[in-house]
Design brief:
By secondary structure, the chain is α/β, with parallel strands linked by helices. The chain is built from ten helices and eight strands. The protein has an eight-stranded parallel sheet.
Amino acid sequence: MEITENIERIKKEITSDVCLVAVSKTKPKEAILEAYQGGQRVFGENKVQELVQKYEDLPKNIEWHFIGHLQTNKVKYLAPFVSLIHGVDSLKLLKTINKEGQKNKRVIPCLLQFHIAEEETKFGLNLVEAEELLESETFALLDNVEVRGVMGMATYTDDENQIRKEFRSLKTIFNELKTRYFKDQPSFCEISMGMSGDYQLAVKEGSTIVRVGSKIFGERDYH
């Protein structure tokens, strides 16, 4: 029951309007089912093959979020069912998601990923690149993707001030895009930031989606 207790504790710490994504990557199906039976419905995976397998084997009312770096050649496997793609960092990827959305006769929700950390390893757009993307003729023609908001990962550090600063920069980017491009779209409302180590800070800084793994399932199983 530990998993369920962990989820209940985290839900008490975040406000009810924040979506908790239980990051289940590398976790066995039994652990996911335990969380599911405790009422959790949103799960996040970062490997396409693993996600597809879990989708096939687990209850169909689970909302699957893809939270890893998505390669264009893998989009087709997720397109029929994925609830939200967190990490879109190029127009090329958006075009591919749109194409696969058309094939599956559905609109696929996405978040634009921004590089807010002071680390070289994180993927993501900057504001200028995002503006170019959103103002492009190509983007205007994409009817099978829906940009729901933004996503970013803070630097892996114990410095709370730095983490806060990075989360604030993502909130600022969200506000800027909302005002300029999505004013009349209520669906553009998500800020996905905050993980096991910093989700409480993220919520204080305006996060609407937190991605929590080890604080729910325990430390990662590498295999």
